[in-house]
């Protein structure tokens, strides 16, 4: 008959629950894998599978009862670590969607919205379009595999305990948020410049021919120029998306205190 003590049971639970909470928090907060359209059962199953593979490699776990106050503190620290790592990559996708929102507003498509399962709300059409391109680029460079490799290596540099992420790391993550506006503006600049020239030309035209209905001519012209420039600029967005994604990976490595990672 197999017998197990309470201390051994607590050790087994701690060795599974604590790493599971970090991995599940990463998957829930990360882009693509954390998409609400991604089945919850698949997210949980993937997290449990990774945990089963990672748990035997963990050493020197805190000898703390998981249901105690200190055990709950460790659980919260693991959730914060996983969420912070996933959130740093989510900022990249928000920056891309912000660029699409800026472009859509300047083109006159601010009213054209579509349901986004990622945010469960209405987002501009152009923002959703650029977000899909960023998601395809993310999958093309095996970004989901890089995230899984990174979270598994984070247990070495950020071992399970009550310390968690340091205050300077949280400050670094907060400063990383500026990329939402900086990168969003940089991505939208080509279309913004073309639309600015178009609006200046329409202004000159309205002064030269006051009898011309500038509103009837300006909207379809601005829309056509915006789509044309966007179609011409799409091939040049791919390197920018890739740079942003790798910047996001570098931020994830900085949060995990990783100096290098073996990308797939």
* Beta strand %: under 5%
Unreliable residue stretches? none
- Mean of residue pLDDT values: 80
Estimate percent helicity: over 70%
Oligomerization: single chain
Question: Can you characterise this structure?
Answer:
- The structure is a single chain.
- By secondary structure, the protein is mainly α.
- The chain has one domain.
- It has eight helices and two strands, in the order αααββααααα.
- It has helices spanning 6-29, 40-54, 69-107, 125-140, 143-157, 167-176, 179-208, 214-255, and strands spanning 113-116, 121-124.
- A two-stranded antiparallel sheet has the order 1-2.
- β1 and β2 (121-124) form a beta hairpin.
- α3 (69-107) packs antiparallel against α8 (214-255).
- The radius of gyration is 24 Å and the shape is elongated.
- It starts with 5 loop residues before the first helix and ends in a 9-residue tail after the last helix.
In short:
The protein contains eight helices and two strands.
Could you list some keywords that capture this structure?
264 residues; mainly alpha; 2 strands
Q: How is the topology of this model organized?
A:
Blueprint: H1 6-29, H2 40-54, H3 69-107, E1 113-116, E2 121-124, H4 125-140, H5 143-157, H6 167-176, H7 179-208, H8 214-255
Antiparallel strand pairs: 1-2
Helix pairs in contact: 1-2, 1-3, 1-5, 3-4, 3-7, 3-8, 4-8, 5-8, 7-8
């Amino acid at each position: 008959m197999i017998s197990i003590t309470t201390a051994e049971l607590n050790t087994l639970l701690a060795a599974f629950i604590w790493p599971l909470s970090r991995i599940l928090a990463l998957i829930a907060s990360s882009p693509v894998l954390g998409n609400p359209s991604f089945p919850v059962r698949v997210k949980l199953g993937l997290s449990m599978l990774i945990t089963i593979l990672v748990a035997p490699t963990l050493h020197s776990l805190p000898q703390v009862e998981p249901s105690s106050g200190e055990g709950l503190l460790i659980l919260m620290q693991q959730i914060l670590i996983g969420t912070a790592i996933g959130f740093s990559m989510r900022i990249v996708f928000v920056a891309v969607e912000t660029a699409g929102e800026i472009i859509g507003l300047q083109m006159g498509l601010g009213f054209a919205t579509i349901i986004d399962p990622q945010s469960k709300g209405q987002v501009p059409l152009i923002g959703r379009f650029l977000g899909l391109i960023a998601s395809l680029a993310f999958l093309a460079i095996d970004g989901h595999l890089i995230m899984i490799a990174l979270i598994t290596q984070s247990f070495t540099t950020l071992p399970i305990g009550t310390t968690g992420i340091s205050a300077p790391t949280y400050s670094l993550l907060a400063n990383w948020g500026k990329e939402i506006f900086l990168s969003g503006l940089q991505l939208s600049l080509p279309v913004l410049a073309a639309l600015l020239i178009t609006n200046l030309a329409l202004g000159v035209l309205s002064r030269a021919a006051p009898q011309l209905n500038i509103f009837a001519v300006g909207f379809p012209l601005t829309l056509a120029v915006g789509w044309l420039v966007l179609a011409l600029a799409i091939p040049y967005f791919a390197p920018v998306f890739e740079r942003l994604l790798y910047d996001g990976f570098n931020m994830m490595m900085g949060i995990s205190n990783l100096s290098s990672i073996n990308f797939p």
